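Reviewers asked in the last cycle whether our approach scales beyond single polypeptides. To address this, we selected a multi-component target totalling 414 residues and predicted its structure end to end. The input consisted of the following lines:
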Amino acid sequence: MPASPRRFTPRERRGDLFPGPAWRVGSGDVKGHSARLEGLGTTIFAEMSALALQTGSVNLGQGFPDTDGPASVVEAVTHAMQHGRNQYAPGIGVPELREAVAAHQKRWYGLEVDPDTEVAVSTGATEAIAAALLGLVDPGDEVVALEPYYDSYVAVIQMAGGVRRGVTLRAPDFRLPVDELRAAITPRTTTILLNSPHNPTGAVMNRDELEAVAEVAIEHDLLVITDEVYEHLAYDDTQHIPISTLPGMAERTLTISSGGKTFSFTGWKVGWATGPASLVAAMVGAKQFMTYTSGAPFQPAIAQALELGDDYFDSLRARMESQRDLLCEGLEAIGFDVFVPEGGYFATTDIRPLGFDDGVEFCRMLPERAGVVAIPHQVFYDDKEAGRPLVRWAFSKKPEVLDEAVTRLGELRL
Ligand SMILES: Cc1ncc(COP(=O)(O)O)c(C=O)c1O
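The resulting structure, written as structure tokens, was:
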């Protein structure tokens, strides 16, 4: 829901919604936070990561890999730093990265984008998503998004003054309910925000689903913003299809991705957006006043990474797929109902076979009782009931870490 301007209660002004010293302004004379942040709180990841530290738990909460990406790419950053690439990069990104992103879109999807006007670099996909929504959504515009939502979507739609309309992906297979998508469109809808492969469900939108979205977008003249950060992590026979490859979609789609998941450098925060020059320019229009420009020495290194051979991409996918299988089989043997993901970093389970029905309570007790951290789906939904019994587990971890987590969970007498 959009934030409605109103006066804050003294408790809110003190910052109680945002526990922690940074938000505690004490006297009440200074506002604790703006209406734009109302109800957003701190992310569940902060709470769960703190619990993981306190309890020495295996952290399958946050989605980052515990193995670094290629050493040659690390060397490329060092080289860039030692050879004067340390000052502001151009706002839209260094030419070699924009060219590498354009070449990547051509190589994997046959898409032609002009590296000078149809590609821009961002500080991770997160910034591109925020800048795209701030640059393209007006207050009161309705944005249709898939829930469970990646958490930044809720925040930035609200900060842009947009109104979020969720379309719920439901267990067990988390397919797109096309009728519900159609029903969510109103005369105020301007944008569809997609994410495939999807976090947290692991669903990868198939051609039928993408065609249905394209039909709706074209019929209602909507913009599509699509988050494809897991584009190289689609498993088994599943294929990632960018919606911009569908007829009539390239001209209305802004595609966002990043090097974090594809090259296992989530801390470098190198992302990008590709699409029609006008959409890229709108994204850059907002980005220039957020960060202006993104990490200079990381950009040539990610350009080099994008040019790695197919063997790199194949082995990344194979490794993640086997980690997925290891975790899913382990969780299933313990008794969870497991929804094996088609893509991404996360597996989802239903906890009800183990006698629980509330994921938040389950995840809060798990570090203490089992020494494992996971994330309740509920925090990603407006429709809390749809997410209540579901829990998300990251498998972007070494096999021995996943084994340890499964052993600990197995010893837990539930
Ligand atoms: C769906 C999705 N989008 C975006 C991001 C963030 O990407 P980046 O680290 O490049 O900002 C993540 C990270 O977990 C994600 O899962």
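Residues 63, 124-126, 150, 195, 199, 227, 229, 258, 260, 266, 269, 271 surround pyridoxal-5'-phosphate (CB under 6 Å). We regard this as preliminary and will revisit it once experimental data from Aim 1 are available.
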